[in-house]
Amino acid sequence: MAEVSAAAVGAVLDVNTAGNPTETAMAYLQDEKTDGDITNLNLGELDLTTDEFILDEVDIHIQANLEDDLVKEALKTGVDLRQYSKQVESELQRIEQASIKDYIKESQNIALLHNQITACDSILERMEGMLSGFQSDLSSISSEIQTLQQQSVSMNVRLKNRQAVRSHLSQLVDELVVPGTMISTILDSPVTEQEFLEQLHELNNKINFAKELSFRETLACSDIQDIVDRLKLKAVSKIREFILQKIYSFRKPMTNYQIPQNTLLKYRFFYQFLLANERTVAKEIRDEYVDTMSKIYYSYFKSYSGRLLKVQVIRGGGRQRRPDGSRRYSQERYPLKLSFFSKPSLKSRNTIFTLGQRGTILSPAELEGPILVPHTAQRGDSRYPYETLFRSQHYALLDNGCREYLFLSDFFMVAGNSALDLFNSIMGKTLSMFLKSMSTYVSDCYDSIAVFLCIHIILRFRAITAKRNIPALDKYWEAVLELLWPRFELILELNIHSIRNTDPQKLGVLDTRPHYVNHSSLHAEFSSAIVSINQTFPNERTNALLGQLQVEVENFVLKMAAEFPSRRDQLIFLINNYDMMLSVLMERAADDSKEVEGFQQLLLARTQEFIEEILSPPFGGMIAFVKEAEALMEKGQLDRLKNEEARITQLIRGFSSTWKQSVESMSQDVMRSFTNFKNGTSIIQGALTQLIQYYHGFHKVLNQPTFRSLAVRSELINLHHLMVEVKKHKPNF
After folding, report:
1. Rounded CA gap, 389 and 441, in Å?
2. Can you spell out the DSSP letters for 636-696?
């Protein structure tokens, strides 16, 4: 290192003394040669000036040497690098000699270190031999471990197989073994105890398992077959006795059969056990239940229906006429055969043709209220219309039918058509009795409101069963509706024919004033009743029949009005009847119903005509002149009235002198003609308004150029003054 540094310092010095790299290299070589370090140096054909000499590398080495700390220190102090190089070399030789002396001095220690290293080598050699032995031993142990692992896997597989076999065998043995507890419980315990029910479940499982094994021809099955069969027969016998006893308890008088039914539902597994293991006994129990409950329901509803008829109201009295007017019947035999043109008492009218409080039967509180108790009603001397009895009877049927259907589905484990067939086998006789009784009643019933209320009761009950998801009574509801709808339509058609074929001259003396037992009133009350009932479940056929009935009543009212000799009396009769019918309709029907709108239009038209009729006697001349003048004005021919000065003068002076008396007389006449003061007031107001409009038209005509020169125009009453005076004559009610 010292030598290299000295050489580098020399090179650097040369670089510092000469600027040309070539000259510097030559000087360095000469110095080396002079010192005797390089002998017989042959550079050959080396050309130091050629570009092929890599001066860049030299520069790099020089630059690196210049970075050396020692070189930097020498350059700073200005030391002669050649001398310094020799000094460094001598110092290195001295250090080398000192180092050799140190090695000689420590020779014994080095020898001792050598001996120790040799001993360590021998020890390591022995350890290597031991480790090699250990390695061979470990390889043999690894093979033994692999062998043990294979043996362990094989033993684990055998263990799992034996455990699987044990589980199957233990299950098989458990299923095959009949414990003593089961035997004693089945033989000795009552069927109502919970322990018996639990052991019956276990016995059922063993029976099913034994059946399954018998198909596989398992020999162990034959060992328990006998004891299982004996236990099954004993269980079937006890269950049969228990269920039949509960069924027979239904037959006791005054028994609430819902209690034993609930008891049977607690032990529904009994029937399931019988159905799975002894179908003959299961069929016997099912048939016995069907026969018992069929008789119970039939007896109950037959007795209940008969008692209900004893509290049915008997409407009216005397002899009545059928709706077609063909002949009369005794009201005691045919209590509901009334028509619009019979002569019922006020009491009869309020129940046959009016709804009254009968419509409340359709309210939710009444519809699903408690059923009637006949003997309680008899003690209280209460009487009810047919629809109330019908509601009570069918609500009892709905309640019992729904409960019975749910019991059958739950206890006998049936659904769909099977459940419906079982239900019909129990309730069919009762339902047939209902239909027969209803058919008898309907065939001789002319109380259309009662029939219509029954129809809507059935529609609502059908909705209730649909909401409860009970389809058992659907066919019965349809059968009842098939009985009631045609009868209701027939009664309406008979009333239509009765109105159409009635001769007004046979009704006696007619009066222009209405009263509440005339035919129009009955029609209005009847129509309002049907419309109000029909609003919840609209029926197009009913609407069509009501439309026909309304047309016939309108025609009949016109025929009765034609019996009056004067048009004025005819209009009074029509307005009074239309107003009365409209008032009755609006009490129950909606304001936008067809019936209300139809009578409103008729009343408006006849009222307007009547106003013209009562204005004509006192003011007919002026009205005719105004209409004639307005028609000529539209044609531009008003000059044709230019010579009517005398007529105009008479009209102006006649109106001025008599209008007050005429208005007063007209008001009194209107109020006498119309018993409905509100209607009379409306007519008077309409007449006075129309009068002012005519007089305003009269003013307008006389203001035309043709009549402006007439002196009599100054006698015209001021229109505003006339309006103020007319207001004084308006009655206030």
Report:
1. 13
2. T-GGGGTT-HHHHHHHHHHHHHHHHHHHHHHHHHHHHH-S-HHHHHHHHHHHHHHHHHHHH
What is the amino acid identity at position 106? Answer: E
Taking the C-alpha atoms of residue 581 and residue 303, their distance in angstroms, rounded to an integer, is 44
Inter-axis angle of helices 279-309 and 416-443, nearest 10: 20
Gyration radius of the chain over CA positions: 65
Q: Which residue has the tokens 């019909």?
A: 424
3-state secondary structure of 710: coil
**pLDDT tens-digit profile of 656-665?**
999 989 988 8
Collapsing DSSP states into helix, strand and coil, what is residue 291? Answer: helix
Spatial neighbors of 335 by CB under 8 A, at least 6 apart, are 314, 315, 316
What pTM was computed for the model? 0.65
Convert the pLDDT of each residue in 514-525 to its tens digit. 644 455 667 777
Please spell the DSSP secondary structure of 320-332, one letter per residue: EE-TT-S-EEETT
Per-residue CA distances from 403 to 263, 400, 406, 431 (Å): 14, 5, 5, 16
Sign of CA dihedral 159, 164, 165, 167: positive
Which string of b and e fits 547-579 if b means at least 16 CB within 10 Å? Answer: ebbbebbbebbeebbeebeeebbbbbbbbbbbb
Instruction: Report the candidate in 292, 202, 229 with the shortest Cα–Cα distance to residue 255.
Output: 292
Contact at 8 Å (CB) between 71 and 8?
A: yes
How far is residue 472's CA from residue 254's CA, in Å, rounded to a whole number? Answer: 26
